Amino acid sequence: MRRDVFQAIADPTRREIIGLITQEPLNLNAVAEKFDISRPAISKHIKMLEECGIVVIKKQGRERYCYPQLEPLSEVHEWIDQYRQFWEAKLDSLEKYLETLKNKQHDKTK
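The chain above was modelled as a monomer; its predicted structure follows.
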């Protein structure tokens, strides 16, 4: 089942897992040791990340390592960017308006 990437980043634990494995690939036990929740709970989080395509699990000997695959996060970046552009335009407009008011006030004091 392919899940939505927004589901992956909705949970703070999953965001923290993403941050950890971007520093270095970790096996499941190493990831679980970083949290105060059970290993099965961590496994569920990692499964969600894997289903979203953000984590790839590779077997090395008897261990399973989590590797980041961050390309799916570009969807989040694109979604956020449209709002960034919207607010930048609004703030630029506000800045121009405030500058106009300032100039009018300055002209009145002359």
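The mean pLDDT is 92.
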